[in-house]
């Protein structure tokens, strides 16, 4: 028997979500890898995420729009699009497509490269 | 002008690779996120990766087979398939499809969760 088996990021996608679904895929002291699934969910208009950790995030299915505080225009995220959200860079999910599940892969981490 | 722009993981895929192409997408003291592109490349039959860091890796395009030391059968990786390779778990890429570019997203990190 193998101790190494793979799982699929696009398996077991719920079709009837009332809230965003968060699944932790891997975790260590300094990093957390999550799958996020949304179906038309977005942040409340008055809500901003303000996170302690940096977040590198990619959309792998579906579509979304991310708005950063003090920006006029949202960033449209199509499959393959990725963006780095520095810690405490306030942002919100302005829109996700209601037509299908939007699958995000997010890597949260706490320390920036000391050389940068 | 926005200071937040996205990039696409599937953009600028080279079509004529002689070696695997590695691009660092984000990096900190404890984590490194890389895009890996292979077109038919695999490890030499006698070569094993033996890494200091844990590697969480997902195939997002193409196909590959990963072989772990002391396993009879490789793990087939199709788009969406992901696997955690613990540090020093010896492995090699037995095969990637020659028909198209295989795009991997890999997250390398140095510390395991102390609770596990």
UniProtKB/TrEMBL annotation, chains A, B:
Residue span(s) of domain Cupin type-2: 40-108
CDD domains: cupin_reut_a1446 (cd06981)
Gene3D superfamilies documented for this protein: Jelly Rolls
Pfam families: Cupin_2 (PF07883)
Domain of life of the native organism: Bacteria
Residue spans crossing the bilayer: none
Stated name of the protein: Cupin domain protein
Organism expressing this protein natively: Stieleria bergensis
């Amino acid at each position: 028997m193998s101790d190494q088996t793979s799982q699929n990021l696009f398996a077991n996608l719920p079709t009837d979500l009332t809230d965003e679904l968060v699944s932790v895929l891997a975790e260590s002291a300094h990093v957390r890898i999550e799958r996020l699934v949304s179906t038309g969910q977005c942040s409340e208009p008055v809500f901003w995420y303000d996170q302690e950790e940096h977040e590198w995030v990619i959309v792998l299915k579906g579509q979304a729009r991310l708005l950063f505080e003090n920006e006029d225009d949202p960033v449209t995220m199509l499959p393959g699009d990725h963006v780095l959200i520095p810690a405490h860079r306030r942002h919100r999910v302005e829109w996700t497509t209601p037509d299908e599940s939007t699958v995000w892969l997010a890597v949260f981490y706490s320390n920036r490269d000391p050389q940068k």
